[in-house]
């Protein structure tokens, strides 16, 4: 920790010294802007020159340069108006041990030269300014060092214990082109240092405290100006393999993970052109954090996605009740989904009412029938692929005379225009004058073809056997269709007995080839195949699982009957119309998804196999194209134009070069599998806090996590300082931590505000439920209003999940500084003030309830109120049972 231990002069510098220092920084900033303008002029000159000299270079290169100049102009304009702190830091350094300079023009030595300090006096040998991008002057001397460059590392790492060459670290606050203030930390307070003969002053109360004291908005800010040493170690950790970071609430895990993404891109843009994925637990946390990377100059290659939106087309925000989430998240689902996918084949094709089925005669089935029904219904004449009469007609018409002599004359006989091949027998399928069959669901239960002048039929049992044979092994169900087709042909061929008629294997093979060709080019056969082996969709299969009877069969020895009931009931949501029979659901499944459904969809995608689609060309990253001036992009630029692009990039990619998992403690085993598939070849940064886990079976999740990360070597870090909560709030939260995870250490709060948490009580025991709710509503609104008056920024009201909608209604009139959150939604977020409503309700909601309550209690940066109901058993001071000593 640098600033925490650093000595900052307690604002002893007089106003005139402060003004002088600000003036000096202003002069430097002006120089930087002048240099940026020069660079734009240079680019414009190049353009002009190129135009004068005609087509020098390829048209593509000229267009690129044109775009570059245009972009640079736009960016400069925005830099002027929008970049609050383009230049934010400065370090004053002693002479280094060696005189070597790095590529950024700065001296590389970490340690000071012998004799750099004598009698506690020293001369500053080098001053570096740190900013969001690097700028060199015309002589290649550094005007600004990019915060990610090695030369900037001492700005973050130096501490009074290990100051290296740093004497003073300064944070500069600016807006647009104007410097507003400076905050200094002295790393060697005992040394009197001079710069150009004048003593080096120290101004302000220290940068970290200034940053932490600022009011919060609904979006996270970058911490680039005040990254602390232990955080910097994580951000700059080598990219290889897996970086795991643990730390309590408010230790900066999310901030560090995002800064690390920017650092990795800076270090090796080519490598990470494969994209960086940041996985967040909730859309709220995505919205809260998504501005950080653009403000650091990076966004084009980073996709931030919530767990509920990780699968294209899925946008889940609903939460399952804990007992259902527990089932859906468990790794037992893998086996169940495999069974369900195979079982679902027996149900209707998704387009069961579509034209293909109408074209195939006799495929009608009672839409409500399940597999058993379908099989027992076989043989009643409704499940044919080809109508019996029609088949007879075909035979009578002499379309086929697969005769003993093996000569086919279907072409001669005008048989359906098939290609005639001498020497091969000609099995055929007739094209019967079929009356359209009413749309129906359920797979066909009989396949009938006409070949060799006779009818060949596979009945329901035979078809079932063929299906089982095709399903052997673990290959994706949709991709097994060619195999099923081949096995069907084998079965038909065997049944025809034609194979026995040929003693000459060559003739037999030729006959078989003709047989296959003729049958498989018949529309009726293809229609049969479509209906009998439909292409399954993940949503369709999931919806089919809403049928409790079917699910019970598929889940035998996997779930208990209670779990089957709970799961089936939950999946009924997918069947929008509410008609929950499985067959209809198979063609439907487009109802709202829960967050946990998404991992199931992803697993099913794997089990079913994606239909082949032409590969989309990968988009070129504009950052790769812009050379030299690429650094000059700004926040507004990147957020507006970037969003659409970011979404497209995320849509196209399922495999990333680096995966960052935030709040990793919350991923269920099924979610780990989903995320793991997106980083099969990736390096990883995984941040989390076991004490905040809302998942009830951490061992199972740990196993799934290990599988997702594979055998890659891991590097572990622990963050120990809580930058969010004042000590007063952290102390209260620690009481719940002691209950939730006995023995687990709390992070150390970096500051204290002197404001103790407040306790109030809404409703007392014995009140009727409606009256108690009203009292709770009133108390919530009153207290939220009071907190809004107390703080300048945001107020978060955290309630049990079951009260989420209710609380939103209660608070609707208080404006947008206040937000109502279900306890599971509070993950990762922070507010100036937090109101936690009924700790007992939150804790009782799930087996991990105490940990969820711990999360709720650690969201505030300034003030916390705990509002109790009767069930909290508050003492006379309003302190609920759970929070007493
Ligand atoms: N070095 C720093 N300088 C200034 N602010 C910081 C620093 N480190 C963290 N913070 C601030 O502390 C707060 C907590 O950070 P962050 O959300 O990243 O913590 P976290 O460990 O992810 O917390 P949680 O586990 O509760 O989600 C944020 O407001 C962040 O900006």
Automatic annotation (TrEMBL):
Residues 427-442 have a biased composition (Pro residues). ATP binds at residues 247-254. Keywords: ATP-binding, Helicase, Hydrolase, Nucleotide-binding. The keyword Hydrolase applies. Residues 399-413 have a biased composition (Polar residues). Residues 1-21, 396-446 are annotated as: Disordered. It comes from the Bacteria. Gene3D superfamilies: P-loop containing nucleotide triphosphate hydrolases. Residues 9-21 have a biased composition (Basic and acidic residues). InterPro entries: DNA_helicase_UvrD/REP, P-loop_NTPase, UvrD-like_ATP-bd. Residues 226-726 form the UvrD-like helicase ATP-binding domain. PANTHER family: DNA 3'-5' HELICASE (PTHR11070:SF45), UVRD / RECB / PCRA DNA HELICASE FAMILY MEMBER (PTHR11070). This is UvrD-helicase domain-containing protein. It comes from Streptomyces halobius.
């Amino acid at each position: 920790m640098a600033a925490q231990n650093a000595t900052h002069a307690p604002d002893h510098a007089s106003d005139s010294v402060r003004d002088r220092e600000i003036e000096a920084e202003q002069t430097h900033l002006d120089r930087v802007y002048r240099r940026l303008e020069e660079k734009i002029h240079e680019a414009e000159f190049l353009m002009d020159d190129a135009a004068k000299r005609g087509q020098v270079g390829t048209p593509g290169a000229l267009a690129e340069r044109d775009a570059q100049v245009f972009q640079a102009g736009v960016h400069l304009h925005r830099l002027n108006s929008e970049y609050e702190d383009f230049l934010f830091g400065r370090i004053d350094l002693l002479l280094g041990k060696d005189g070597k300079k790095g590529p950024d023009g700065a001296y590389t030595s970490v340690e000071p030269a012998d004799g750099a300090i004598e009698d506690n006096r020293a001369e500053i040998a080098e001053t570096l300014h740190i900013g969001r991008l690097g700028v060199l002057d015309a002589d290649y001397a550094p005007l600004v060092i990019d915060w990610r460059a090695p030369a900037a590392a001492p700005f973050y790492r130096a501490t009074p214990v290990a100051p290296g060459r740093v004497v003073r670290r300064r944070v500069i606050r600016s807006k647009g082109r104007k410097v507003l203030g400076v905050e200094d930390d002295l790393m060697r307070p005992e040394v009197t240092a001079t710069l150009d003969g004048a003593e080096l002053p120290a101004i302000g109360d220290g940068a970290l405290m200034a940053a932490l004291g600022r009011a919060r908005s609904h979006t996270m800010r970058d911490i680039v100006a005040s990254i602390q040493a232990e955080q910097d170690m994580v951000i700059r950790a080598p990219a290889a393999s897996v970086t795991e970071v643990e730390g309590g609430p408010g230790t900066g895990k999310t901030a560090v993970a995002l800064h690390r993404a920017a650092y990795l891109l800076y270090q090796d843009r080519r490598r990470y052109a494969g994209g960086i994925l940041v996985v967040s637990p909730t859309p709220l946390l995505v919205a809260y954090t998504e501005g950080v990377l653009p403000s650091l100059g990076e966004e084009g290659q980073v996709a931030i996605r919530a767990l509920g939106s990780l699968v294209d087309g899925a946008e889940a925000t609903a939460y399952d009740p804990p007992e259902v989430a527990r089932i859906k998240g468990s790794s037992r689902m893998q086996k169940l989904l495999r069974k369900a996918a195979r079982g679902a084949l027996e149900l209707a094709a998704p387009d069961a009412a579509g034209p293909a089925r109408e074209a195939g005669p006799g495929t009608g089935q009672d839409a409500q029938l399940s597999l058993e029904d379908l099989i027992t219904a076989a043989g009643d004449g409704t499940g044919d692929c080809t109508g019996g009469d029609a088949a007879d007609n075909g035979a009578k018409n002499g379309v086929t005379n697969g005769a003993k002599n093996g000569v086919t004359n279907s072409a001669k006989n005008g048989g359906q225009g098939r290609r005639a091949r001498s020497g091969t027998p000609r099995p055929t399928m007739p094209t019967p004058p079929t009356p359209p069959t009413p749309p129906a669901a359920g797979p066909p239960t009989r396949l009938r073809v006409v070949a060799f002048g006779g009818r060949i039929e596979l009945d329901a049992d035979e078809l079932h056997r063929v299906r089982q044979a095709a399903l052997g092994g673990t290959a994706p169900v949709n991709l097994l269709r060619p195999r099923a087709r081949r096995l069907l042909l084998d079965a038909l061929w065997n049944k025809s007995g034609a194979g026995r008629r040929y003693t000459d294997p060559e003739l037999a093979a030729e006959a078989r080839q003709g047989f296959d060709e003729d049958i498989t080019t018949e529309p009726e056969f293809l229609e049969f195949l479509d209906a009998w082996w439909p292409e399954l969709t993940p949503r369709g299969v999931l919806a089919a699982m809403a049928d409790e009877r079917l699910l019970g069969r598929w889940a035998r020895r996997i779930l208990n009957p209670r779990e089957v009931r709970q799961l089936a009931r939950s999946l009924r949501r997918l069947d929008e119309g509410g008609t929950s029979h499985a067959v209809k659901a198979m063609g439907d499944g487009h109802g709202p998804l829960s967050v946990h459904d998404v991992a199931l969809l992803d697993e099913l995608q794997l089990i079913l196999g994606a239909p082949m689609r032409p590969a989309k060309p990968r988009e070129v990253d504009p950052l790769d194209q812009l050379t030299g001036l690429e650094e000059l992009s700004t926040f507004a630029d990147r957020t507006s134009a970037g969003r659409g692009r970011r979404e497209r990039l995320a849509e196209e990619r399922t495999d990333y070069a680096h995966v960052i998992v935030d709040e990793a403690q919350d991923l269920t085993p099924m979610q780990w599998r989903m995320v793991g598939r997106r980083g099969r070849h990736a390096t990883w940064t995984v941040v989390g806090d076991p004490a905040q886990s809302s998942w009830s079976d951490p061992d199972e999740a740990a196993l799934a996590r290990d599988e997702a990360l594979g055998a890659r070597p891991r590097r572990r870090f622990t963050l120990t300082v809580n930058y969010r909560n004042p000590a007063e709030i952290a102390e209260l939260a620690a009481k719940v931590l002691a209950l939730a995870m006995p023995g687990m250490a709390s992070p150390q709060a970096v500051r204290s505000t002197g404001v103790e948490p407040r306790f109030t009580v809404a409703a007392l025991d014995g009140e009727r439920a409606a009256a108690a709710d009203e009292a709770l509503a009133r108390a919530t609104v009153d207290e939220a209003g009071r907190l809004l008056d107390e703080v300048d920024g945001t107020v978060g009201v955290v309630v049990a999940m079951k009260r989420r909608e209710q609380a939103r209604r209660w608070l609707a009139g208080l404006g947008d500084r206040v937000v109502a959150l279900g306890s599971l939604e509070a993950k990762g977020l922070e507010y100036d003030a937090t109101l936690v409503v009924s700790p007992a309700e939150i804790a009782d909601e799930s087996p991990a309830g105490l940990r969820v309550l711990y999360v709720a209690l650690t969201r505030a940066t300034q003030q916390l109120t705990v509002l109790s109901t009767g069930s909290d058993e508050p003492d006379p001071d309003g302190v609920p049972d759970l929070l007493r000593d």
